[in-house]
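Handoff note, outgoing to incoming analyst
You'll be picking up this chain. Sequence as last confirmed:
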Amino acid sequence: MSTLQPVNPKPFLNSLTGKPIVCKLKWGMEYKGILVAVDGYMNLQMANAEEYIDGNNTGSLGEILIRCNNVLYVGGVDADSEA
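Most recent structure output, in case you need it:
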């Protein structure tokens, strides 16, 4: 059984800049796209973003900004797993 290792969030998010990510909000929506930038408050700017509600793609949004207090989690996406 694997365990989660704690990660310092700012270096983790900075390492994901320019890479594909998935961001889930507290309200259940997920956004997948390229992380463009992260600020000191950990607000996220994404490009080529797509919105998913209950696992269903609801459309392409383009460039978006997600305010930090809405984020449940952020993770990197492998290029191989996107299809």
